[in-house]
Amino acid sequence: MILIVDDKKENLLSLQSLLASQGYPVETAASGEEALRKVLQTTYGLVILDVQMPIMDGFEVAEMLSGYSRTRDVPIIFLSALNIDKKYITKGYRSGGIDYITKPIDPDILLLKVDTLYKLYEQKRELNRMQVLLQQEVEFRKTAQQESHEYAQQLRAILESIPQIAFSCTRDGKIEYSNTHWLTYTGSAEYPELHPDEPDFASILDEMIHQNEVFEREVRMTKPGENSYRCFLLRAAPSYKDGKIKSWTATFTDIEEQKQSSRRKDEFLSVASHELKTPLTSIKGYIQLLERTLTEDCPGKLYVERSLLQIQKLDSLIADLLDISRIESGRMKLHRTTFPLDALVRRAVDLMQQISPDYQFRIEGKTDAVLHGDEMRLEQVLLNFLSNAVKYSPHQKEVVVSITTTNEGLVKVSVTDKGIGINKIDQQSVFDKFFRSEESIRNFQGLGLGLYICADLLQRHDGSYGVTSEPGKGSTFHFALPVIATNQN
Ligand code: ADP
Q1: pLDDT digits (tens, 9 = 90+) for 211-233
Q2: Which helix (H) or strand (E) holds 248?
């Protein structure tokens, strides 16, 4: 917008129409005072000022304009009818004007000057705007840099304060930072030395890099110059940039003590269960002999039968403990044969019916499926499901075993009871070692090992397993195994 200031109406009109004809937006003021009022309300790109005006002449107006911050940079062209001498011209420039035109005005010259000054003003404004933006950007970056520096320091302080060995490395494993524990353990900025049986660090890092999420693995490491190794848990978490892994932050936690105490516990379990098993087998044999010698009407027979039942329970607890120590030490062996599933189910159900005569067992379905695996161990799995169904349904004495084949060449066995049921959260843990629900801990005896052993045995047979249940209504435990043939007889 251009402001023309002249006390003569005809001059205002002719200049206005000249500039408007070239497409400039124009406003006019008929006196210095009016011009000052207008510049306070509107931002002008150029002011064309008549020098000779009553009350306040053009030089005074220019001086005032150069005093306001918002009008200081607006270019001014002075117009004067006088054949003015040098001192007026210099006064004009000093008072803030940028150019000077004497009357009579040459329209072409005026338009050229207007065009140049107007454009200059626009460019200057744009430059100022850019400068402000740049300044803001610089400030923003400075703050961000400061924050990220503080954040890095904080992260390092955290890594220093933890008892573990900690480090951070680039995406491909180049160490960027390691805490003091690292140095006291390794003595250098290199990765520590691993046990000869472990893969080297390069392959562990390779494994880590190919895992797009938190990585965990146990490694045995030694200090330089020592030959005793300790077990550590390496845990590395990736940081991402643009969806790709940028770096890793990782810790080595010394778990040697836990490893040793778990080893001692396993050894104790193994020795204790073996030691208990031998005398118990003898006791069981003698009591069975004693039972056979007693006639039905002998008053002691009932007690002998009850003793046998308790011995049976003890026997199965010890068997579970032995199985656990076999699993933990990698000594669990399977004796695989080929056998029909339906017969196995029948046998297990008949046995359970004998042990729990007041329960009703029902088999639904028929498969004729032939499986390959350890028949005794798979029977043990089904017996475990069945004895749990009995144990955890003390009031509803109905158990259904259903057997079906699936289109994927599997046989599916389900054991359904109408007992206490299992809530959703506990359903995820029932196959975990030592897991027992709150309710079972309160009201039922057990070690929480049976289902863990079942899960291990089923995995060894390439089987799958699971549970569906509703608290208070009952549970269905199921497993599926691959069928190798169908017996047509
Ligand atoms: P235990 O029966 O000795 O506790 P298991 O490993 O056989 O050990 O079972 C683990 C837990 O799963 C049990 O303690 C119980 O909480 C739950 N559970 C297993 N079977 C059933 C069932 N049929 N109904 C309800 N809860 C069950």
Answers
A1: 778 999 999 998 877 878 999 99
A2: strand 244-254
User: Mutation test of ligand 1: which of 318, 386, 388 has the most ligand atoms closer than 8 Å to its C-beta?
Assistant: 388
420 lines ligand 1 (CB under 6 A): yes
CATH of the domain at 112: 3.40.50.2300
User: Residue 452 is inside which H or E element, if any?
Assistant: helix 450-460
- Asked if residue 449 has its Cβ within 6 Å of ligand 1, the reply is yes
Distance from residue 380's CA to the centre of ligand 1 (Å): 15
Same domain, 288 and 231: no
Tens-place pLDDT, residues 84-102: 666 666 766 666 667 888 8
Q: Is the CB of 435 under 6 A from ligand 1?
A: yes
**pTM for this predicted structure:** 0.61
Residue 178 sits in the same domain as residue 248: yes
Show the CA angle centred on residue 249, arms to residues 165 and 236, nearest 5°.
85
Co-location of 35 and 110 in the same domain: yes
Distance CA 392, CA 388 (A): 6
Residue minimizing CA distance to atom 7 of ligand 1: 450
Please identify, by atom number, the ligand 1 atom nearest to the C-alpha of residue 446: 3
